[in-house]
Every structure is written in structure tokens, then in C-alpha cells.
């Protein structure tokens, strides 16, 4: 039994005449890990940027949980619908401490509510749990800018794990985009990330992964979406999709 | 003694200006070169209300806060549409426009003649009436204001609001994805900063008892920028240190024995060299927590 | 008497000075990619150099102007060499460079004031007679006509420099992409130093012309610079020829703006224009 939690219809985006995402209709299943693959410039990151409102879409529609339809995605609203993400180029709040990088996604988001925050201890406990899990608790007072590359990647993942939709409900995000979370990681750190993703799947959270490493894709994915030149080339279970001739050609043709 | 009291009052007024600019510049990372405009709006509003309409100083200062808040809300909305360093340029523009208003709307501001004879603050409860006419009593009043503003800034810094401001400074776009309407935060801090600057303006007008447009130029905004950058961005303590150092600097130069017209220029040389050296070797200022 | 021809004449003269300054500003902006406020002080350096060399020392005028241009170029080069270059080397943000250049302006203009007092000075005594011409209902002085010619000559010279020489091709390459320019073997630091020297000379030239037309004072730099920045943004920042259009547009807006109201509003009009452009057309009339 499957159910769609996130869907796009005829999503379209072009940059200076180049179609980055070309009338893309794709759907993501609840509770699964869906990998998006495709050659460089095939529109993977643009798709995530469109879905999280970082880049405005030119045309098309985004549908969350069947009921919420959007033709304009506002980035400050997506968190409220349970979406969150990491960034391909690791975007941390550089001159904030590791701890503050986590706290900022736990606390009140409104101007007045944040001035008179009342859940300090609760948030601190939640941040501690996440940072310990990612092995960053010892580093909590360092500035993010002073972390090693691997630690920065892990902190971004920690931030995604910690994020609540709003401080009031304390509900976690349930659609998570990972934009190349493994790139440049040492094997032992990679293992940490793999186990985190498996845990999230066990909790029933939806994950959408952009990745190049085929081994990891086979290990983690329930589904694979193949993009080429902004269009959907194939979608299905990994073994079938990765065996398709046009998928192999798209990669070899790179 | 009278001289030291005078300096202390000035340090107090500039501390309020530095603390409020630091909220905007140090925490939220908005390069605002228009702070003197809000300083001036507070000064002119309270000066006009106390001299022409005989309003009590404290009420007049409150009106000044309102005026500065409303105008800063508008200015902030416009500035929020600019990218990067153009915010700095746009804010210079607002400073020039507000200054032109002080200079040219003579029916209201008396233009270059300025407004003389501004009264000192007084408190009235029934038959009991106290006027802060001596410099010492005025010093006490300013210290109380500085303390209040300082604690407000500390409160903001420790709150989740303050943390969000710092995150905006680091990566506004990323913060939005985590559910923040960053525009509201930036406007809020801009308005708070302007409101506090206008209080400094009211105090200044009432202390000197005379104001004219020449105090509220871009050069004053640049001076305030230097104060905050020297003391240290994103540090309230730094703002106080910066105000102390740069208000006392000209006195020091005079003390060393420069003739007064040379001393005034030496002061500018020192500010300029200081900005250069800070940018080259210590972009976080003396005790700052944030490197530009 | 009809005032419109004179307003047009005034706009053309003011616009020409803005145009010269905007050319200099855009030249550094398009290569070094930061808002160099220190550029403004070159006007005072150029103007006061001529003032000192010709009026005080009594050197021949053309020699003085030549040395004045050299001085302003040199100051601009030194600011690059010892301040902007190290900052750029460690990838400092545009804000840091902007604040450092603000420091350059503040320090140098005060230094000029210490050397020459902050009094208003004019260079007009250095030329025998400033003839007045009548042209299409507006009056021009000889100095003002030569300002107008300077813009033409300077634009042609710069066009030749940028399009016709190897040095110009290097500048274009750096302004397109500094990293790529480095890879293809351009000595970007050297070129940039030369660009700062040239733009400093252009700033000095404007200052000297202002000195002959109206007069100079040490703090003149900031307001002239701000006018140049507004003109540059209106024309499309970094676009040399767009800047020319921006300069004249700004001058016309200012001069016709103060037709019915007090001249003190001039700067407010300029910045009103800036804000309108930043809100509705942030990339200017002719984006690069």
C-alpha cells in the first residue's frame, strides 16, 4: 500500500532560456526514500530549490498531501508544511555556535513569540539529543565556520533532524530533502548518515535524496527518479530503473 | 568637574546611539548609514513639541519614538528590496533626504537657523515639579536611559529573536526555509533601532538646548558606524566601549595640544585610519563577536 | 526671459562632470567589483595639487595639471596596493572593502583640510579670462565648454583603451571573470593596480575641472562620489557608457527638479532617483 505525499504537476523553470525543469510531473511516496539521479545539470537541485521556494517556479503546481495546491511556493511557509532540506553547498549559520545552529530551527518563529520564548530548557534538551547522536555535542560551543568539512555536513543533517515545523506543535518535519549528503564524507561518517536515514524511514518520514554514488543509491532507495535535461526519464524500484537502457545511456552520454 | 559631567552626558547619548545601531548592524547585519536621520527625527520632534506646543519632555520624546518608528518602518520596507551593498547606498539616500527636510522645511524646523531655547526635561506630579536643569541631574537621567537601553539590548541578544537576527545576518535565505519570515524580523529590529536612536535625539536636543541640521548629516551616520565597528559588532559591551573611546578621542586630541581646527581634522584622520586598520586586521572590532 | 535653455545648459555642464566621475567609478567597479567610496577624494587631491603647484609654487599651468593628475592617480594606486589588494587577497566581502574605502575618504579629505585648511578655493584665477559664450539661449563659460569637450575626449580615449589595446582586453577579461582571466595568464593584480591609477587620474581630472568652474573644498569628495554612484546605478552599474546616460539623466533631474523649489533639495532629488531605481530597476537602464 502506498500513498503520495508530495507531487508536482507540469513544473517548469528556465534560466536564461535554458530549461532547468521542463514540465516535470513526479510524485513521492510517503515514508520512503526516493533517490533523484541524473547527469549534472539535469535539474535535480533546481527541483529541490523549487519545492522549497528558494527559486520561484515559472509554471506548474506543487501538491502536498493531496490537499494543498501551490502555484507559488514561499520559502518561509514550507517548514510549516513539514518540508525541510540540506544544501548541496552546505549552508550553515557560519558565525553562530553549533548549538545555536540547532536551536534556531527549534524555537519560536514569530517576531513577538521569539522575543518572549518560554521553552528554553525543552529546546536545549532536544538540541542535546540530536547533537549527541551526530557526535557534535562536544563541539557545541564552536562556531560553525570552524568545523571540519565532514562535521559541517553532519551539522546540516543534525539541523534537519532537529527541525520542528513550529515551536508550538513541536512536530518534526516529515518530508526531508538531502542534497548530496554523502559528498566528500569519510566512510565512517557516511555510515552515520546511512543509519540516520534508515532510522528516519523506520519512523515513517519521507526522504528525497540527490546522490551520485550508485552503491548508496541501491542500498538506501525504495524508489529512483531519473531526470535528464529537466525531464522525467524513468521512475520505479532501483533494480528495474537502473537496468533500463535509456538510463544507462543518459549517464554514459554525460 | 562640570567638563567631565558634560563629557559623560555625551558618552551616554552616544552609547544609546551605538547600542541601537549595533542591533541593526551587528546583530541583523543590515549596513545602515542612516542612523543620524532617526537621531535627528527624535531631536526635531521633541524640540518642536516642547518649544512650540509646550509638551512635557517625556511625552515629546515618546512622540519622537513614534515618528521615528513610523518612518523607519517605511524606510526599512524600501531597503529590504535592495541587495547587498546597495542597502548601504540606499540608506545614505534616506539620510540625505531626511537631512534635506530638516534644512528646507523651514516652517517646521527653522531650517539652517536651527531651534534654540529647548527646555530641559521636567517631571511633574501634582504640586511636585522637578527639572533636570543641572548637568549632574541630567547625567543621572541619561545614565538611567543608557541602562534601560542596555538591558533591552541584552534581553534581545539573549532571546530567540536575537538568535534569529544573527542567523539572518549569516544566511537569510536558508533561515527562511526553516520557517522564518525574515522580513518581519529585519523590520522589527530596524524600527526598534530607530526608536532608540530617537530617544538619544530627544536627550541631545534637550541637553544642548539647541539643534540645527548640521548635526544629523551622513557624516554623523558614518561616525556612528565607526563607533559600532570599533567597539565590536554584535556586542553591546563593544558599543559602549566604542562610544566611550570615540567621544573622548577629540578631547584627547585637544589635550595633546592640537589647535582646535586641526584637532577637528585630526579626529577625522583617526576615524578614517581606524576604519582601514580595523578592516585590514580586526574586522570584528575590539570586543566584537561578528566579523563583517 | 525663458529659463528653460539655461536649465538645459546647467544640466549639460553638471552632467558632464558627473559623466567624468562616473566613468572613473565604473572603471574600478567593473574590475574590482566593490563600491569604492575612496574614489571621491581623488577630486580633492587633483584640485588641491593644482592649487598648490600653480597658485602657491607658481608652476606653469599645464605642468601643474599634469602633476595633479599624476598625484591623484598615485594616491588611488597606493590605496589599492596597500589596502584593497590585501583585502581582496583574503576574499573580504564587498562590505568590508566599502567600509575600508570609506576610511580612505575620511582620512585623506581630513589630511587635505589640515594641509590647505577647509576653506573653499577656486582655481579660476589661473587662467586669464573665462570667456562667456551664448549658445541657443543658454550661457556657457569657456571652462564649461572645455568640460563638455573633456567628456567627449575621455569617452573616446577610454573606448580606444578598452577595445583597441591589449591592456583593455585584459580589463574586459577581468570584469567578465577574474578567475578565468588569471587562468589565461593575465596578471590581474598588476592590471587592477593600473586601473586604479587611471581611475584616480580621472577623479583628479574632474576635481581640477570643478576647481576651474566653481571651486574646491576638502570635503567635496563624498557628495561628488555619491552623485557618480547614483549616475552609475541609473545607467547600469559597471556599464561605462550606460553611466554616461545616467550622469546626464541625473543632472537633468536635479536641475529641472529645483526649478520650482529650493536648490537645497538637489541631493534629495538625486537620492530620490537612486531609491526609485533601486526599487524598480535595480540593474539600471543598461544592465551589463
From TrEMBL, chain A:
This is ABC transporter domain-containing protein. The lineage of its organism: Bacteria, Candidatus Tayloriibacteriota. It comes from the Bacteria. It comes from Candidatus Taylorbacteria bacterium RIFCSPHIGHO2_01_FULL_51_15. Keywords: ATP-binding, Nucleotide-binding, Transport. GO terms for molecular function: ATP binding; ATP hydrolysis activity. SMART domains: AAA. Residues 6-254 form the ABC transporter domain. One of its GO terms (cellular component) is plasma membrane. Pfam families: ABC_tran.
